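Propose amino acids for all 432 sites.
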C-alpha cells in the first residue's frame, strides 16, 4: 500500500499535490492500494473543513484512492504501542520540564553544538516514576544502539547514527502522539511499502524506522524524499508565494491536468513535455527525478496550460459561458493562457461598447450596414459588401469593424472572429 498523509492545517501546497500525484502514479503502476491519511493529531493547528477541501482537490485532479483514515481515530492504538514500549523499557517516562529543555537548548546553541536530550530521566526506576505519577511527563523512545539505514529512490542509501536520532518524544504531555510516532505506527499497521514525501521529512525517517524496529516490525519500507520546490528567486516556495496554493492556481484558471502535467515534469526527465496523468502512469520512473531542488516557473505552467487548453473541444463549459460562445473562445485562445484570461477576453467582446471617438463616424456607418442586411456566412462577402456600401477601405474599414465586433483595438484576425460570432453580431450592435 502507498499513502498520502496531508495535515488539514492550511491550503494544499503544490508540494503536497506533487506528493499525492506521485503516490497515485506509483499505486497505479504497481497495482497497489492507495490510502489517504489525514494527519489531524495537532488539534491547535487543524483548520475546520481543510480535510474536505483536500479530498475535493484530489477529486478535481482525478486522484482516486481506496481508503481515507483520520489519524486521530487511531490514538488508542498509538497509546497501546507506547505502553508496550514502556513496559519493554524501550521507551521511558521523562519529567524534564519544557523550561529545563529550553535552557539546555540554549546552552547547546551557545556552545555551537546540536542540542541532544541529556538522558536525565532515562535511568529513573519504576518506583521513582510511580511516585511522581501526578507530575506532567512525556514519553521518549530510547535512542537506538545501532545506525539506522534505509534506501531512498532519489537520495540512494542513507545512514543515520544514534546521535542523529536521539531519545526523542513519542507522546506529549497531553498524551497526544507526536507526528513521528503516529506516522511510524500507522505506516506499519496499514502495511505501507513505499513512502513518497517531501525531503523536509528526511531527518524524521530514521526516527520512524527506530520506532518500528523497537516494536519488532521487520518489513523494509522504501522511501523517496522529493526535493523541495523553489520559487523563481531560488527560495523555498512558501505560503507567501500565491502560486504555491493549489486553490489559487485553480482560481486563476489553470486546468488540473495542466497543473498535474507541470508538477510531474518539474525536476524530472520525461519522454515528452505535454502529457496526461494516464500517460504519466506509463512512463513515470521515480529514479529519474533530479536530486536538486526544482524551480517553479509560472511561465512554463502557463505554456503547458495553453497547450492543454488547445486540446479542449468544449471551452464554453470550462468557462461556464453559453455554448454558442465556444467557437469564439477557441479563436481567442491564441490571446490567453488561462481560463481566467480567456474569460476576460470574451467578456470584453460582449461588454457594452466604449467610446472610440476617432472612429465614431465609420462605426455608425458599419453598424447601419450590419443591421440593414442579412449577414453573409462568408467573411469576404460580408467585408466586401460593407466596403462597397460604406466606401470605407483599408485601415478606415478594418479598425472600426474590429471595434464594432470586438470592442478592442487588437486581437485575433477578424476573418477568424467573424464566423465564430456571426450569430451574435446583430444583437451586439443592437445593444449599443
Ligand atoms: N502530515 C505530514 C505532512 O503533511 C506527512 C508527512 C509524511 O508523508 O509522512 O508533511
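Proposal:
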Amino acid at each position: 500500500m502507498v499513502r498520502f498523509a496531508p495535515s488539514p492545517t492550511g491550503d494544499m501546497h503544490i508540494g503536497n499535490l506533487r506528493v499525492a500525484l506521485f503516490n497515485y502514479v506509483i499505486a497505479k503502476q504497481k497495482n497497489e492500494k492507495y490510502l489517504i491519511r489525514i494527519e489531524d493529531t495537532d488539534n491547535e493547528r487543524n483548520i475546520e473543513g481543510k480535510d474536505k477541501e483536500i479530498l475535493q482537490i484530489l477529486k478535481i485532479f482525478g486522484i482516486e484512492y481506496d481508503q481515507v483514515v483520520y489519524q486521530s481515530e487511531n490514538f488508542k492504538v498509538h497509546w497501546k504501542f507506547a505502553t508496550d514500549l514502556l513496559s519493554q523499557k524501550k521507551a521511558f517516562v521523562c519529567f524534564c520540564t519544557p523550561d529545563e529543555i529550553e535552557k539546555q537548548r540554549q546552552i547547546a546553541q551557545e556552545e555551537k553544538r546540536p542540542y541532544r536530550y541529556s538522558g536525565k530521566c532515562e535511568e529513573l526506576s519504576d518506583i521513582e516514576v510511580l511516585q511522581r505519577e501526578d507530575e506532567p511527563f512525556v514519553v521518549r523512545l530510547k535512542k537506538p544502539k545501532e545506525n539506522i539505514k534505509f534506501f531512498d529512490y532519489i537520495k540512494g542509501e542513507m545512514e543515520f547514527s544514534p546521535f542523529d536520532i536521539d531519545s526523542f518524544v513519542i507522546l506529549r504531555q497531553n498524551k497526544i502522539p507526536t507526528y513521528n510516532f503516529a506516522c511510524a505506527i500507522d505506516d506499519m499497521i496499514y502495511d505501507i511499502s513505499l513512502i513518497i514525501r517531501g525531503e523536509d521529512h528526511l531527518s524524521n525517517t530514521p526516527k520512524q524506522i527506530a520506532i518500528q524496529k523497537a516494536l519488532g516490525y521487520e518489513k523494509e519500507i522504501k522511501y523517496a524524499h522529493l526535493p523541495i520546490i523553489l520559487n523563481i528567486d531560488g527560495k523555498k516556495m512558501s505560503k507567501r508565494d500565491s502560486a504555491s496554493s493549489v486553490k489559487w492556481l485553480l482560481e486563476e484558471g489553470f486546468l488540473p491536468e495542466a497543473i498535474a502535467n507541470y508538477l510531474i515534469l518539474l525536476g524530472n526527465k520525461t519522454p515528452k513535455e505535454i502529457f496526461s496523468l494516464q500517460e504519466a502512469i506509463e512512463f513515470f520512473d521515480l529514479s529519474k527525478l533530479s536530486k536538486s531542488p526544482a524551480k517553479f516557473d509560472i511561465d512554463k505552467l502557463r505554456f503547458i496550460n495553453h497547450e492543454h487548453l488547445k486540446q479542449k473541444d468544449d471551452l464554453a463549459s470550462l468557462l461556464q459561458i453559453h455554448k454558442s460562445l465556444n467557437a469564439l473562445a477557441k479563436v481567442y485562445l491564441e490571446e490567453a493562457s488561462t481560463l481566467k484570461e480567456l474569460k476576460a477576453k470574451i467578456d470584453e467582446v460582449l461588454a457594452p461598447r466604449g467610446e472610440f471617438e476617432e472612429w465614431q463616424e465609420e462605426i455608425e456607418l458599419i453598424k447601419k450596414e450590419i443591421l440593414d442586411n442579412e449577414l453573409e456566412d462568408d467573411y469576404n462577402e460580408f467585408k466586401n459588401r460593407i466596403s462597397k456600401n460604406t466606401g470605407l477601405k483599408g485601415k478606415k474599414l478594418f479598425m472600426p469593424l474590429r471595434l464594432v465586433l470586438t470592442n478592442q483595438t487588437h486581437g485575433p484576425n477578424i476573418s477568424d472572429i467573424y464566423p465564430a460570432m456571426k450569430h451574435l453580431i446583430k444583437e451586439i450592435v443592437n445593444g449599443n
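The domain at 2-65+229-302 is CATH 3.40.50.620 (Rossmann fold). The first strand starts at residue 2 and ends at 4.
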